[in-house]
Amino acid sequence: MTERVVLITGGVRGLGLAVARRMAADGDRVHLAYRSSHDLAREREAEFEGRVHRADVTDQDEVRALFARIAEREGRLDVLVHAVGEYVAAPLTETSPADWRRMWSSNVESTVLVADAARPLLRASRGALLAFGVAGLEGLAARRRTAAYAAAKSALLVFVRSFAREEAPHGVRANLLSPGVVPHDHAAADAFDEALRARIPLGRTGTPEEVAEAARFLCSDEARYVTGVDLAVAGGWLA
Ligand SMILES: NC(=O)c1ccc[n+]([C@@H]2O[C@H](COP(=O)([O-])OP(=O)(O)OC[C@H]3O[C@@H](n4cnc5c(N)ncnc54)[C@H](OP(=O)(O)O)[C@@H]3O)[C@@H](O)[C@H]2O)c1
Questions:
Q1: Residue 2 has pLDDT above 80, yes or no
Q2: Radius of gyration over alpha carbons of the chain, in Å?
Q3: CA separation for the pair 19, 211 (Å, rounded)
Q4: What is the 8-class DSSP label of residue 128?
Q5: How far apart are CA 209 and CA 20, in angstroms?
Q6: 133 CA to middle of ligand 1, Å?
Q7: Is 24 part of any domain?
Q8: Separation CA 144–CA 44 (nearest Å)
Q9: Is the CB of residue 204 less than 8 Å from the CB of residue 170?
Q10: What's the pTM value of the predicted model, to 2 decimals?
Q11: Residues 194-237: pLDDT tens digits?
């Protein structure tokens, strides 16, 4: 079988890195993209054999250049995992217009840009796209401290489902994976909040490896009939 070519944006740390390692362990040829974590990127160079690229995925020119580089180097792209999406936690009274714009740009606009750039490559390979939401989107529930973040992720869910629908006739699948609370070395402080942990029905936070296992499945041939879903990997927590 031909080695799959995978691009993981936000892949030098956190959940993206866990997915990258899981897919590399399966024999995929994994590329990573990052924005500003230069030291971490350097650390990943050897592990991913130079396939580490700097690109701000909220900038259309940088996104186009990134996908052109992958296309030139590999001639194909089979899987795009978009693990970018900034977070802000505050009540509405303390959420600024700049916070709202940042949530939209980082979570929604970036996905639209990478999906657009990846489309021809994914059509050619009949590949798959995976983006990251947050548990509980389906309920459209009020959020105590994460309205701007959850609103952006809700828009992202509509985008991913629409992309899945439009691309299905071309053999391309698109899904959302929605983690609950998953601490890692660079996670936001809320991921370590005991009060949050206490509300998780399975009684513990998740691990990046558990998220990566679900991501592996959604991007694999085992999930060839799965598209347009939002899979919560959250220990039963729905925010
Ligand atoms: N961890 C959790 O508990 C949790 C829960 C629910 C949902 N999620 C979602 O899961 C995804 C991954 O989460 P995470 O915890 O791994 O996040 P993270 O630690 O913040 O990592 C995100 C990565 O995205 C990169 N990035 C951010 N903006 C970028 C941009 N404009 N261009 C290129 N790269 C950019 C960052 O790279 P640089 O450092 O180089 O800037 C960073 O390495 C996110 O969408 C997040 O919202 C996470």
A1: no
A2: 17
A3: 8
A4: E
A5: 10
A6: 11
A7: yes
A8: 37
A9: no
A10: 0.98
A11: 999 999 999 999 999 999 999 999 999 999 999 999 999 999 99
* Intra-chain end-to-end CA distance of the chain, in Å: 41
Q: For residue 42, what is the domain's CATH number?
A: 3.40.50.720
Sign of dihedral through CA atoms 135, 86, 7, 30?
Answer: negative
Residue range of the domain that includes 83? 5-233
Q: Which atom of ligand 1 is nearest to the CA of 41?
A: 40
Other CB atoms within 10 Å distance of the CB of residue 73: 13
Question: How much distance in Å is there from the Cα of 86 to the middle of ligand 1?
Answer: 6
Tokens of 91: 């009540």
Q: What is the pLDDT of residues 65-98, one digit of tens each?
A: 999 999 999 999 999 999 999 999 999 999 999 9
Give tens-digit pLDDT for 130-140: 999 999 998 89
Q: Is residue 81 part of a domain?
A: yes
Site residues for ligand 1, CB cut-off 6 Å = 9-10, 12-16, 33-37, 56-58, 83-87, 106, 110, 132, 134, 179, 181-182, 186-187, 191
Burial of 232 (0-12, 13-18, 19+ CB in 10 A): buried
Residue 238 lies in a domain: no
Look up 149 and say whether it is catalytic.
yes
How far apart (Å, rounded) are the C-alpha atoms in residues 218 and 18?
Answer: 15
Residue 239 lies in a domain: no
Query: How far is it, in rounded angstroms, from Cα 150 to Cα 107?
Result: 10
Domains: count for the chain:
1
Averaged over 132-161, what is the pLDDT? 96
Element (H, E) at 82: strand 79-82
Ligand 1 nearest atom to the CA of residue 86, by list position: 47
